Amino acid sequence: QVQLVESGGGLVQAGGSLRLSCAASTRTVGRYNMGWFRQAPGKEREFVAAISWTGGNTRYADSVKDRFTISRVNAGNTVFLQMNSVKAEDTAVYYCAVMGSVVANTGDYWGQGTQVTVSS
Fold it and tell me: What is the rounded distance in angstroms from the CA atom of residue 80 to the CA atom of residue 35?
């Protein structure tokens, strides 16, 4: 079973940037599609971004397109989410996940989440 640990969350001002990291417990994660999801208070968990195991294919939610960038370093078993021009509505707990495919709408394995709070 894959264990995922997110880090990098915190408090950031609107318009600022933040970089989230997701470290996996096994090197075999390099063969998995990975993604980020988020859940705001009182709302359901929603898809944010996904990246194929090769890194050659990415997908983004419309709400974050052109502001967020997902990337990965397979040798280091790590996936990143670079968040730029953040908005108050980006405030949520962000979860890293192993995904069956880049087009999936949910994950198979989840991290514990990291809180991102954007102040306006």
Answer: 9
